[in-house]
């Protein structure tokens, strides 16, 4: 039964192959993707139950030993991350059907989208389940390669520019990761997390710290932690809505997951605590100041994404049970909320033709359902009680206060400030897009050229003939004035799921508490991987 | 264990050259830099694998085997580098198709925010946009909007860029650094006027 650990990695890859074979049939591609991802969600749920009941589920692929072979392992943390991420991926997939149908009609999809999307999902699963550094690297590369294709989908000028930045930054971080792995191997003779846990303690402290810093640098680039975060708001907003949504939800969280893993398993204790706390403070405050300065919904959301990464780092830095539990809860909450907000931004764009705040207005009257769908996750992001964002922030705050020294208290203060500023940024979006009357409403409808110098939005530098996936096509369908069910329903599903996180916060905190305990104990993980071996 | 200095020097040279190239603006140079960087990094695995020995096949050699694990890893890394480089080349080609060069441009939105700060105007997303709409007291006079709208600024920047690009096409080998200085001139400079 533990063998099902391989399914979240294998199934999407097989599905991607099948999708390529059926590249000409949109219906077959949709069917395959949904079946595959649904199965993976069920698998992830099973894994979470089993990991919670019987301890970490480990598999040695091909029967090689853990020292030379590849092993996959699902402990509580991995399984929970896997469940949330695959569920979110499934919802985004359903949303993308709706968008695809709206844009291209039922029969002519972009045949490369579904296979790439499935490969992305496989990469994310592999990163979550991997039990050694090198397999983690492969997982990262798989998801990056897929994300390169998705972020440049359609090859318009704005996306090529954004994609170039994204690709170059990712390449550099991969190179640093490779250097880190080779240094780890040279120092310890292994790359398996479980074996590293035993061997790093014997290294001279200077060398161990250098290895830790190298790995942290890599993961901080992936997670967009402050000094290394400039690439994110630059590259995310131009991609199609479902792509941005799934990137925002998952990719940075994979980096955070990797930080949790190495900070608890390989380099236990609160080494580098000061550094991480400062990084967390700067990430939170500078990120949110960036959001306040922007005037486009997608860009505001990209900056809040960067900013809220700081919260997770904050919980990790303490390396206490309370802090880790809060951080894990916050990751689960943030994956859901950030994804749903980007999906809503996509709906706003569909509805009004833009996400630029100076062109939006009056949506509360003309699209009441959309307003509710925006309002709930937005308040959740800002951390208004009783939503899960509030609960996560309270948990982190408690961890900070329990820790008690001045730096921890400063971080708690910074997190409260960030929360207020998030509310400010969100309120700005709400007031200007939903409450204020529409600015000269018919100005842009008859003027196709208007798009060519729309300041930000995907079309930024695009000549009107090149057109982005979203804008030009949607001009024509705008008259329908109703949200298509196919796009609306998955969004509503995710909103309900995010509210569900609030309602079920008790049991969820139970799981994250146990996950944090397990992380700090380390022995369940190590013995599950190394098995009977000495 | 004796360190292999030839390998170390090769790594240093490759990584240093690669780093310099990666800092360029043109994507094709960045890619060449990345390939050098990647090769340098791959060589570190040979250092990490320790002293050389017999081929790691059981029953083939008599002495010590070399460590096969870093070799397996480095093979994977090489394959990944190859694939990603191919994608990067396609990206550079597409950029060249669309714009005539493959330089990575500054972000338009960053430019907007910076210029707004230079001009010391409030952003268009500031309250002025709602001028004419009475607030709760209902006693506001419709005031003249003081901000520069995003559209105007964006149009300005685009005009400048178009100007630059035209210049770049006229003289194919314009030094990218020269163009950068053009881009960063304050908006009240003559360049802007020409751009318009």
Automatic annotation (TrEMBL), chain A:
Signal peptide: none
Ion transport keyword on record: no
Domain NADH:quinone oxidoreductase/Mrp antiporter transmembrane, chain residue ranges per copy: 130-418
Subcellular location(s) of the protein: Cell membrane; Membrane
Listed transmembrane segments: 6-23, 30-49, 77-98, 110-128, 134-153, 165-187, 207-231, 243-263, 275-293, 300-321, 327-348, 369-387, 407-427, 491-511
Pfam family, one: Proton_antipo_M
GO BP terms in the entry: ATP synthesis coupled electron transport
InterPro entries: CPA3_Na-H_Antiporter_D, NADH_UbQ_OxRdtase, ND/Mrp_TM, Proton_antipo_N
Primary residence: membrane
Protein's UniProt keywords contain Cell membrane: yes
GO molecular function: NADH dehydrogenase (ubiquinone) activity
Listed GO CC annotations: plasma membrane
Annotated ranges, domain NADH-Ubiquinone oxidoreductase (complex I) chain 5 N-terminal: 67-98
Keywords: Cell membrane, Membrane, Transmembrane, Transmembrane helix
Family, similarity comment: Belongs to the CPA3 antiporters (TC 2.A.63) subunit D family.
NCBIfam families linked to this entry: PRK12665.1
Protein name (record): Na+/H+ antiporter subunit D
From TrEMBL, chain B:
Subcellular locations according to the entry: Cell membrane
Disordered as annotated region, ranges: 124-196
Keywords per UniProt: Cell membrane, Membrane, Transmembrane, Transmembrane helix
Membrane-spanning parts: 6-23, 30-48, 68-93
Gene Ontology CC terms: plasma membrane
InterPro entries recorded: CPA3_antiporter_subunitC (IPR050601), NUOK/Mnh_C1-like (IPR039428)
Statement: the UniProt record of this protein carries the keyword Cell membrane: yes
Principal location: membrane
Membrane topology: Multi-pass membrane protein
Pfam families reported for this sequence: Oxidored_q2
Start-end of Basic and acidic residues biased regions: 175-196
Acidic residues composition bias: residue spans: 149-163
Family of this protein: Belongs to the CPA3 antiporters (TC 2.A.63) subunit C family.
Entry protein name: Na(+)/H(+) antiporter subunit C
Organism: Knoellia flava
């Amino acid at each position: 039964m533990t063998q099902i650990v391989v399914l979240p990695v294998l199934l999407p890859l097989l599905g991607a192959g099948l999708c390529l074979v059926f590249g000409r049939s949109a219906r077959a591609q949709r069917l395959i993707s949904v079946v595959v991802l649904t199965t993976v969600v069920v698998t992830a749920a099973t894994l979470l139950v089993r990991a919670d009941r019987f301890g970490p589920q480990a598999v040695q692929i091909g029967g090689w030993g853990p020292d030379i072979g590849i092993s996959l392992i699902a402990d509580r943390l991995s399984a929970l991350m896997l469940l949330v991420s695959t569920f979110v991926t499934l919802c985004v997939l359903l949303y993308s059907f709706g968008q695809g149908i709206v844009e291209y009609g039922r029969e002519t999809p972009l045949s490369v989208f579904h296979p790439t999307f499935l490969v992305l999902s496989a990469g994310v699963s592999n990163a979550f389940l991997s039990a050694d550094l090198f397999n983690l690297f492969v997982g990262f590369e798989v998801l990056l390669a897929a994300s390169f294709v998705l972020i440049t989908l359609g090859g318009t000028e704005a996306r090529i520019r954004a994609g170039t930045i994204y690709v170059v930054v990712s390449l550099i971080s991969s190179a640093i990761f490779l250097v880190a792995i080779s240094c780890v191997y040279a120092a310890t003779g292994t790359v398996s997390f479980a074996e590293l846990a035993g061997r790093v303690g014997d290294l001279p402290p200077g060398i161990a710290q250098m290895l830790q810093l190298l790995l942290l640098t890599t993961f901080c680039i992936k997670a967009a932690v402050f000094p290394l975060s400039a690439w994110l708001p630059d590259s995310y907003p131009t991609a199609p809505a479902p792509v941005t949504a799934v990137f925002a939800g998952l990719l940075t969280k994979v980096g955070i997951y990797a930080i949790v893993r190495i900070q608890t398993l390989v380099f236990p204790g609160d080494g580098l605590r000061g550094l991480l706390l400062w990084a967390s403070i700067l990430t939170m405050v500078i990120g949110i100041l960036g959001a306040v300065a922007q005037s486009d919904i997608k860009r505001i959301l990209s900056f809040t994404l960067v900013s809220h990464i700081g919260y997770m780092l904050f919980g990790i830095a303490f390396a206490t049970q309370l802090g880790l539990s809060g951080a894990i809860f916050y990751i689960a909450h943030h994956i859901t909320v950030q994804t749903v907000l980007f999906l809503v931004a996509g709906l706003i764009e569909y509805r009004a033709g833009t996400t630029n705040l100076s062109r939006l207005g009056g949506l509360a009257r003309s699209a009441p359902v959309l307003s509710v769908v925006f309002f709930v996750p937005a308040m959740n992001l800002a951390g208004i009680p009783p939503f899960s964002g509030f609960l996560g922030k309270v948990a982190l705050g408690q961890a900070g206060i329990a820790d008690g020294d001045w730096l921890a208290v400063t971080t708690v203060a910074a997190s409260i400030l960030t929360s207020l500023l998030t509310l400010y940024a969100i309120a700005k979006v709400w007031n200007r897009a939903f409450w204020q009357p529409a600015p000269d409403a018919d100005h842009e409808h008859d003027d196709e050229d208007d798009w060519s110098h729309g300041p930000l939005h995907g079309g930024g530098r695009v000549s009107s003939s090149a057109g982005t996936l979203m804008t030009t096509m949607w001009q024509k369908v705008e008259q329908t004035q109703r949200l298509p069910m196919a796009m609306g329903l998955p969004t509503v599903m995710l909103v309900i799921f995010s509210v569900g996180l609030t309602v079920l916060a008790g049991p969820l905190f139970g799981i994250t508490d146990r996950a944090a305990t397990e992380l700090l104990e380390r022995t369940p993980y190590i013995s599950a991987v190394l098995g009977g071996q000495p | 264990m004796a360190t292999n200095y030839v390998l170390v020097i090769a790594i240093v040279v490759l990584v240093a050259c690669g780093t310099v190239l990666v800092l360029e603006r043109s994507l094709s140079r960045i890619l060449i830099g990345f390939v050098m960087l990647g090769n340098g990094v791959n060589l570190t695995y040979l250092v990490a694998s320790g002293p050389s020995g017999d081929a790691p096949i059981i029953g083939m050699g008599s002495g010590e085997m070399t460590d096969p694990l870093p070799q397996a890893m480095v093979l994977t890394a090489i394959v990944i580098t190859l694939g990603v480089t191919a994608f990067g080349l396609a990206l550079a080609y597409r950029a060249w198709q669309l714009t005539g060069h493959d330089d990575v441009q500054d972000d338009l939105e960053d430019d907007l925010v910076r210029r707004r700060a230079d001009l010391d105007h409030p952003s268009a997303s500031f309250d002025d946009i709602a001028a004419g709409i009475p607030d709760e007291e209902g006693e506001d006079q419709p005031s003249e909007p003081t901000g520069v709208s995003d559209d105007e600024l964006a149009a300005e920047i685009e005009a400048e860029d178009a100007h630059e690009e035209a210049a770049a096409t006229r003289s194919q080998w314009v030094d990218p650094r020269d163009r950068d200085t053009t881009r960063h001139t304050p908006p009240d400079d003559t360049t802007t006027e020409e751009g318009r």
